[in-house]
Amino acid sequence: MAWSTKRGGPYTPTPLIYGGLLYIVSNNGVLSAWRANTGERLYQQRVGNGGSYSASIVAGDGKIILSSEDGDMAVVKAGPKYELLSQNPAGEVIMATPAISDGVIFVRTGGHVVAIASPAPAK
Predict the structure, then answer these.
(1) CA 35 to CA 17: how far, in whole Å?
(2) How many angstroms from the chain centroid is the CA of residue 60?
(3) In a domain, 8, yes or no
(4) φ, ψ of residue 49 in degrees (nearest 5)
(5) What is the pTM of this model?
(6) Is residue 35 a part of any domain in this protein?
(7) How far is 28 from 37, CA to CA, in rounded Å?
(8) Would you say 46 and 30 are in contact if contact means Cβ atoms under 8 Å apart?
(9) Residues 51-110: tens digit of each pLDDT
(10) 75: containing domain
(11) Total domains in the fold of the chain
């Protein structure tokens, strides 16, 4: 089945399909989730404090990660309802799309490359 919409597409960030849902963040920080196979919009919600978004959405472990040019990284639960799990300040501009590898999120800010991972279990 093919579908399209005339409104709600991003200018810069690339949309993401994850778990059968299409996620789109607009340049002004509005996240929309759609059923990828039917085009049914499930929600449209401003992410955290808003801001400008150039980086594309990434996903893993049931979470959607959005990075704003203001230096905030929002973590949203993947699924048909909007649920902001956390808002994490990086302290610097983020314009590049984060990369995920082996459970580590790599983020390039205006002046650093940061690796974010869960701490290793104590021995």
Answers:
(1) 9
(2) 10
(3) no
(4) -95, 10
(5) 0.87
(6) yes
(7) 26
(8) yes
(9) 889 999 999 999 999 999 999 999 999 999 999 999 988 889 999 999 999 989 999 998
(10) 16-91
(11) 1
